[in-house]
Write a structure and sequence with these properties.
With 169 residues, this protein is mainly beta. The protein has three helices and eleven strands; from the N terminus they run H-E-E-E-E-E-H-E-E-E-E-E-E-H. The longest helix has 9 residues. It starts with a helix and ends in an 11-residue tail after the last helix.
């Protein structure tokens, strides 16, 4: 998918069903995840980020986005998945997190962008309780998309460091 195709996903007209919320879905290790389309700033092809010393391996570095320094996180590594070599399908989804007035941007490296989904509130289920070995703090809910389940991510939780502080990069 070209960068122009990625941008057209954001501009698609989904007026046929405006009663739900829109989410940008993407793939990680063959599973579908999604973030609120209202939080998405742009979708970019992978470009090498400037590495920041003494940061976790999932923080790939920072990029300069029109004068703003944006940290870039590899979601595969953040979620404890096996690393994968970046390809032409690998993209960075630049999203906003935080409260209005103090919003910040971060980039999320994902395997590929999938689609824009319209999800009705009644299609969203709470994240089930698992044993303590299954981390679910980044998932705000599960949505049905046809026969598939899509994990809806909590961007504010993703922006937190493991010690509970907001990432400063």
């Amino acid at each position: 998918m070209s960068e122009q195709d990625h941008l057209s996903l954001l501009g698609q007209d989904h007026d046929d069903d405006t009663s739900g919320s829109q989410y940008l879905s993407f793939l990680l290790d063959g599973e579908q995840y999604a973030v609120s389309i209202l939080r998405v700033q742009e979708i970019r092809g992978w470009e090498t980020a400037t590495r920041v010393p003494n940061t976790p391996n999932y923080l790939k570095g920072v990029i300069n986005l029109r004068g703003n320094i944006v940290p870039v996180y590899d979601l595969r590594l953040r979620f404890g998945m096996a690393p994968k070599e970046y390809t032409k399908e690998t993209v960075v989804i630049v999203v906003r997190h935080g409260e209005a007035g103090s919003e910040r941007s971060m980039g999320l490296v994902v395997d590929a962008v999938s689609d824009v989904l319209v999800v009705q509130d009644e299609q969203i289920s709470r994240t089930p309780e698992f044993d303590s070995g299954v981390p679910t703090e980044f998932i705000q809910g599960l949505a049905s998309a046809g026969d598939d389940m899509v994990m809806l991510l909590d961007l504010d939780a993703l922006a937190q460091r493991p010690d509970g502080q907001e990432s400063a990069a």
